[in-house]
Amino acid sequence: MIVTVAVTVLWGLPADDPKPQITLTADTPDPANPTGSWTRRVTTERFEKALRVVINSVVFRSSGQNLTTAGTYTETTSRLAEPVLLGLAVLAVRSRIKR
Question: Which helix (H) or strand (E) holds 26?
């Protein structure tokens, strides 16, 4: 999950968030890949948003976020890989406890 959060922070979240309007609609721009250096992309705000996206994706199976193409592929891969890895970890712990 840490790797997924890191990849989502760097490449998965679009550069701009939807801009809410008074008419209860949102101006949702097409997800665009973020540009600039890593130091501009790695912020606490983007980390928190990436963490919420990843946790929602893994635990609740739906992030509900507009993601870039890289973010969509990352979310899909994490939906497949992370439950498998968690299951293997549980089996490993169970095996150690049985001994």
Answer: strand 26-27
Q: Give the count of beta carbons closer than 10 Å to the beta carbon of residue 41.
A: 15
Place of tokens 């490993």: 92
Closest by CA to 74, choosing from 7, 2, 10, is 7
Helix 69-98 / helix 44-59 crossing angle, nearest 10 deg: 60
pLDDT per position as a tens digit, 37-84: 878 888 888 888 888 877 776 666 665 667 777 887 887 788 778 888
What global pTM score does this model have?
A: 0.47
Q: How far, rounded to the nearest angstrom, does the alpha carbon of residue 73 sit from its chain's CA centroid? A: 10
Q: How far is CA 92 from the centre of its chain?
A: 26
Q: How far is CA 54 from CA 13, 36, 84, 98, in A?
A: 11, 23, 15, 32
